[in-house]
Specification:
Layout: E1 4-12, E2 20-26, E3 32-41, E4 45-54, E5 65-67, E6 75-81, E7 84-91, E8 94-99, E9 109-110, E10 116-125, E11 128-136, E12 145-150, E13 173-178, E14 181-187, E15 192-197, E16 203-208, E17 218-223, E18 230-234, E19 240-244, E20 249-250, E21 262-270, E22 273-280, E23 283-288, E24 293-299, E25 304-309, E26 314-319, E27 322-329
Antiparallel strand pairs: 1-27, 2-3, 3-4, 4-5, 6-7, 7-8, 8-9, 10-11, 11-12, 13-14, 14-15, 15-16, 17-18, 18-19, 19-20, 21-22, 22-23, 23-24, 25-26, 26-27
Length: 330
């Protein structure tokens, strides 16, 4: 049975509408929502804007970071460092690191401020926190490449590598996590899913997704935040299929029947259960991976850009209409 949902708070932004966004939960007491939105500043100049809000009621709870440049691939990663937290934000002026703990000293930027990141992920390597970025850099500079950084120092954590064919086919490539480590997922022409170490591109797994025929598939996410390391893949029939990276096999039946057209997905823990949230052109659909059933559909009447799983079962969402936090009831 599909459950109901209610809005705990929302910050509408219909005029101008949000054109891209990312969202994350910053743990703590109180917990906070970190959200990046791109919209036209004063209706004239596109900019990306990052702010903190209290998870409980939406009141402003932190600094406002703004860059007056447009961008299309916002990302936010919250990283635990020495019992504190750092927020890694992909902006239109490079990747910025925001330390919410004043005693934590970290570099404030990774890479060059003129570089543009198409994707990023945070994890651990050899016991240290790292951030891996896929850079869209002009060829007269260093050219497109993937680079791992030591978050503590900002120094490169490995040699840069160049993905075959570049990162232009973004629907075929994703940076993600497996067992806490950053990995790169790539779908090849024959619909095999390649998993490699994101820091070095060293191959780790090869998972065939179909036995016969060729279809244009889209890799939505690769992550271990639900518990097991999983990959979600969008098929031409509109279904989303979930694959277990360890077993190299399907994890559950195909996810079908969600309202709208899926354009992205996030994995996480919902009420201490593994769950998948599909981002669609009308909202967010939550699938309980343990019960193998839909937990709820959040109808926003607008494109959902990102969703984050909160500790008590809340979902924080950024959409074309702004930011909101909802509670689903089974």
């Amino acid at each position: 049975m599909v459950g109901d949902w209610r809005t705990l708070w929302r910050l509408d932004r219909d005029h101008p509408p949000v054109e891209a966004g990312a969202i994350a939960i910053h743990p703590g007491d109180p917990a906070r929502v970190v959200v990046t939105e791109e919209w036209a500043f004063y209706g004239l100049l596109k900019s990306d804007n990052t702010n903190y809000h209290a998870l409980s009621d939406g009141r402003e709870a932190g600094g406002w970071i703004m860059f007056k440049y447009p961008f299309t691939t916002p990302r936010i990663e919250v990283v635990e460092v020495d019992a504190a937290f750092a927020v890694v934000i992909n902006t239109s002026r490079g990747i910025h690191v925001h330390c919410t703990d004043r005693e934590l000293s970290l570099p404030d930027r990774l890479g060059d401020h003129d570089w543009y990141a198409l994707d990023l992920v945070a994890g651990r390597r050899d016991g240290r926190p790292i951030v891996v970025a896929a850079w869209d850099v002009p060829r007269d500079d260093r050219g497109p490449h993937v680079q791992a950084y030591d978050l503590m120092t900002g120094a490169p954590a490995a040699k840069p590598w160049v993905p075959y064919g570049g990162w232009s086919e973004r629907e075929q490539r994703r940076l993600g996590r497996c067992d806490g480590r950053p990995v790169a997922g790539t779908l090849d022409y024959f619909n095999n899913l390649h998993i490699s170490d994101a820091a070095t591109d060293f191959p780790e797994r090869l998972i065939p997704l179909e036995e016969e025929g060729q279809s244009w598939l889209e890799l939505l996410t690769v992550d271990d935040r639900a518990g097991p390391a999983l990959a979600l893949v969008l098929w031409p029939d509109g279904s989303v299929r979930c694959y277990d990276l360890a077993a190299e096999a399907p994890y559950c039946p195909p996810l079908t029947g969600c309202p709208g057209v899926p354009s992205g997905a996030r994995l996480g823990r919902w009420r201490d259960r593994p769950a998948a949230a599909l981002l669609t052109d009308v909202g967010v659909s939550l699938y309980d991976l343990q019960d193998r059933s839909w937990a709820g559909h959040v109808d926003l009447g607008a494109q959902a850009y990102d969703v984050a799983f909160a500790p008590q079962g809340e979902l924080a969402i950024v959409s074309a209409r702004g930011t909101l936090v909802v509670q689903l009831t089974p």
